[in-house]
Design goal:
Distance between the termini: 20 Å
Number of helices: 19
Radius of gyration: 24 Å
Number of strands: 10
Number of domains: 2
Strand order of the largest sheet: 1-8
Helix content: 40-55%
Largest sheet: 2 strands, parallel
Shape: elongated
Structural class: mainly alpha
């Protein structure tokens, strides 16, 4: 629900430079090998695959620009996407595309690019380093899903591809193309286009969210009379909220969280300014910690727009608390 500074991705690259550079080098070699001797797996056997001239051009361009594609900014990816489109149109690589030969090529290339391997081995520590724990689309759930591996369960990051990997296998492991999401939002978005920027170099986009949650004023008034939380009406507005509601049902999701809204409403009555000052005075050593403040402890969640990726429902709770002047 808010962009992050794209410099954080470059910092993460520096922190994992050896591992990432090894992945880039080894994957580039695999692409060149596939270009020289294309094969596919059929009935557990490798069989020769005949590439079309366009597919050869696609691999040549990918190989020649591979590191820049993996580390390319959103602006870079747009330029690369435009060029890839001149070679093979994205829709021709899609799940229902024709001719069939392009789908076979896409699936083999996706396997070579190694997204599943990276998700299993690398993305957990990478996204933790970026500080993204909550779904970037709905902010209501963690970006973690559980996958069975052998006899054990493993917690893995759920990742949406801004440029769908079924249309753009070339970007399947490009860092700026990876959006951590919950499983529901990932499934809901699928291959749909969405006007949402996660990585940006524009401070206006990563300093304050364009989206806003609120409780309708009429339902607040009614609650204070009859205390019926089910009649509280949650609203979600700002930015492209209509599109977000259409794809992810954001407003509907949060209208199931009326108990949380009610708790914030009650806190706004109980925690008046005098009471908050007394708490701060009584526990001054605790409240002077750099990573804590009175507002965060009272709300039970993060209270700054720039922190909403840290924990689910932080945006919702923060906006309602500000509306009610709790924080």
């Amino acid at each position: 629900m808010i962009a992050i500074n794209q410099d954080l991705v470059f910092f993460a690259y520096k922190n994992h430079k050896t591992e990432i550079d090894h992945f880039i080098h080894s994957t580039e070699k695999k692409i060149k090998s596939f270009r020289a001797k294309p094969t596919r797996t059929l009935k557990k056997k490798k069989v020769a695959l005949l590439l079309t001239p366009l597919q050869e051009d696609y691999l040549d361009y990918l190989s020649a620009n591979f590191k820049d594609i993996i580390l390319g900014t959103p602006d870079d990816l747009l330029k690369f996407a435009t060029h890839f489109e001149t070679i093979i149109k994205a829709v021709d690589l899609g799940k229902e595309s024709k001719p069939y030969i392009h789908r076979v090529f896409r699936d083999r290339l996706l396997c070579i690019m190694g997204y599943n391997s990276q998700r299993n081995k690398f993305y957990s520590k990478y996204f933790q380093g970026l500080g993204i724990k909550a779904c970037v689309y709905c902010n209501s759930q963690l970006t973690i899903s559980v996958k069975r591996q052998g006899l054990k369960n493993k917690a893995l990051y759920q990742v949406d591809h801004y440029y769908p990997k079924s249309y753009y296998p070339c970007f399947s492991v490009s860092f700026f193309n990876l959006y951590p999401t919950c499983a529901n939002c990932n499934l809901s978005k699928s291959n749909k286009p969405l006007k949402f920027v996660l990585y940006s170099n524009n401070p206006l986009l990563f300093s304050k969210s364009v989206f806003q949650f609120s409780i309708s004023q009429i339902s607040i008034t009614n609650y204070r009379v009859n205390f019926e939380k089910e009649k509280l009406e949650i609203e979600f507005k700002g930015g492209n909220s209509k599109e977000m509601n259409k794809i992810f049902a954001v407003e509907q999701i949060y209208n199931t969280q009326k108990d949380v809204a009610e708790e914030i409403l009650l806190k706004s009555i109980i925690y008046n300014d005098t009471y908050k000052r007394s708490l701060e005075k009584s526990f001054s050593k605790l409240y002077n910690k750099k990573d804590l403040n009175v507002q965060r402890l009272i709300l039970g969640n993060y209270t700054l727009d720039t922190e909403i990726h840290n924990r689910p429902m932080s945006k919702f709770m923060m906006d309602i608390a500000k509306q009610l002047k709790l924080i």
